[in-house]
């Protein structure tokens, strides 16, 4: 009884537990679109804990379990299977002292989610952000989170209509980084209630888990929603699960300059023998109407300010540069059934074809949404092309129409 009284005095009462259970049940009926750029709205999902008006925490988890088959593996020209927990995440967000001071923490626990496939150090911490809200339309952040890069990347992996992002995203995306973030929303005073969203960051440039850097990365993004807001933050969720009654459009462009990065992909990839400057231009569009969804992206990257000394030539020349694209079209067949098509590709910069790969992917996806994106079953069938002139030692083999198929089940609160 004494311990129970202490719990009550600390503010975590039976009422708190009942509210948490009720909100968990409410999650099964309504799913708020997850944002990786700010904390979730208070009390809408997950398990909620609070102490008066000075502390709130929402606890959520999700997992993605996958089984797949490839007719040719990347390392050897043989077929093989993939059986894995693709993602396992724990998310905590809320506020401390008052609603102006928010936080967002996300941890990852699966092997492929901790950068252990390409690295040797487990990166458990994905997001660790402190936010200060000056108003509903302007807030800033300090910590580690996603850069405002291409739309497909900023969309949470829990809100994708395919099990994974495109090959263009894999090569040219901006990833998470540590630094300063700022977000501003401007509501236009016109009949369409247009929205302008401005996002900017100054970060370390070397991605998750990096401590020292020679230069910084500067990233900016502008989004225009000429027809007003999407339902339920639908501009950052794939597929028109909301069945927009009027056409909704978001057009965006962004730019990132990474000064003296020492990683192959800027914030991702292996360590380079010497630093390079990296510039990335991104444009994308999202359109939704009556169950139809269209998303398109274009990337262009350049690499400069480096010197070849005979020991670093191969590594520097293999740093991806060129352009990429991704196009996805989807249709909701009913409230729970969706079919999606994807065509995506990567083109190396002229002169660097021997060191890099021309990539193409054609894919068909099917999703069955038991509880929107929170609980869903997904099937994927893709045909992949990879071409390289094979004139430089160490190049991976070419393939045409490699079959990659999988099923994936996602479950979360």
Describe this structure in words.
With 413 residues, this protein is mainly beta. It has one domain (60-412): Porin (Beta Barrel). Helices cover 9% and strands 51% of the residues. The protein is built from 5 helices and 17 strands. It has helices at residues 2-9, 14-27, 151-154, 167-172, 313-317; strands at 47-51, 55-70, 80-96, 98-108, 125-135, 138-146, 176-187, 195-203, 217-225, 248-263, 271-289, 292-304, 322-332, 337-348, 358-371, 375-387, 399-412. It has a 16-stranded antiparallel barrel. Strand 7 (176-187) and strand 8 (195-203) form a beta hairpin. It is globular, with a radius of gyration of 22 Å. The two termini are 32 Å apart. Residues 1-12 and 16-29 have low confidence and may be disordered.
Which features characterize this protein?
single chain, globular, 413 residues, mainly beta, 16-stranded antiparallel beta barrel, disordered N terminus, Porin, 5 helices
Output the structural class. Answer: mainly beta
Mean pLDDT: 90
Count of runs of 4 or more consecutive helical residues: 5
User: What's the CATH H-level homologous superfamily?
Assistant: Porin
How much helical structure, as a percent, in the residues?
under 10%
Strand content: over 45%
Strand arrangement, largest sheet? Answer: 2-3-4-5-6-7-8-9-10-11-12-13-14-15-16-17
Low-confidence stretches: 1-12, 16-29
The level-1 CATH class: Mainly Beta
Tally of separate domains = 1
Biggest sheet overview: 16 strands, antiparallel, barrel
- Briefly note the CATH topology name: Porin
How many whole angstroms does the radius of gyration measure?
22 Å
CATH architecture label name = Beta Barrel
Q: What's the helix-strand series? A: HHEEEEEEHHEEEEEEHEEEEE
**Overall geometry:** globular
**Total DSSP E strands:** 17
Q: End-to-end distance, in Å?
A: 32 Å
């Amino acid at each position: 009884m004494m311990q129970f009284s202490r719990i009550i005095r600390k503010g975590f009462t039976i009422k708190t537990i009942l509210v948490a259970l009720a909100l968990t049940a409410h999650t099964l009926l309504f799913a708020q679109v997850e944002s990786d750029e700010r904390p979730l709205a208070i009390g809408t999902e997950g398990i909620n804990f609070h102490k008066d008006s000075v502390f709130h925490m929402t606890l959520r988890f999700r997992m993605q379990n996958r089984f797949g088959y490839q007719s040719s593996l990347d390392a050897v020209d043989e077929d093989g299977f993939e059986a894995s927990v693709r993602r396992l995440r724990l998310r905590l967000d809320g506020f401390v002292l008052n609603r102006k001071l928010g936080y967002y923490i996300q941890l990852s626990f699966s092997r492929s989610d901790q950068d252990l496939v390409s690295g040797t150090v487990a990166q458990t911490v994905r997001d660790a952000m402190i936010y200060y809200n000056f108003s509903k339309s302007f807030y800033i952040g300090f910590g580690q989170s996603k850069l405002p890069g291409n739309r497909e990347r900023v969309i949470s992996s829990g809100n994708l209509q395919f099990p994974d992002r495109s090959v263009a995203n894999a090569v040219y995306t901006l990833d998470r980084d540590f630094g300063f973030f700022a977000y501003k929303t401007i509501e236009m005073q016109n009949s369409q209630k247009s929205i302008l969203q401005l996002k900017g960051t100054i970060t370390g440039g070397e991605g998750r888990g990096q401590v020292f850097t020679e230069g910084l990365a500067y990233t900016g993004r502008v989004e225009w929603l000429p027809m007003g807001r999407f339902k339920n933050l639908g501009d950052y969720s794939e597929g028109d699960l909301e069945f927009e009654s009027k056409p909704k459009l978001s057009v965006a462009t962004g730019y990132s300059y990474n000064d003296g990065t020492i990683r192959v992909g800027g914030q991702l990839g292996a360590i380079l023998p010497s630093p390079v400057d990296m510039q990335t231009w991104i444009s994308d569009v999202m359109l939704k109407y009556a169950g139809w969804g269209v998303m398109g992206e274009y990337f262009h990257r350049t690499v400069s300010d480096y010197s070849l000394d005979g020991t670093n030539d191969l590594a520097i020349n293999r740093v991806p540069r060129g352009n990429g694209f991704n196009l996805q079209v989807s249709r909701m067949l009913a409230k729970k059934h969706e079919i999606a098509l994807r065509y995506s590709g990567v083109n190396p910069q002229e002169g660097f074809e021997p060191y890099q790969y021309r990539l193409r992917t054609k894919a068909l996806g099917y999703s069955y949404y038991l509880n929107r994106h929170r609980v869903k079953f997904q099937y994927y069938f893709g045909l992949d092309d990879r071409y390289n002139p094979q004139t430089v030692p160490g190049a991976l083999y070419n393939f045409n129409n490699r079959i990659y198929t999988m099923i994936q089940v996602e479950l979360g609160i």
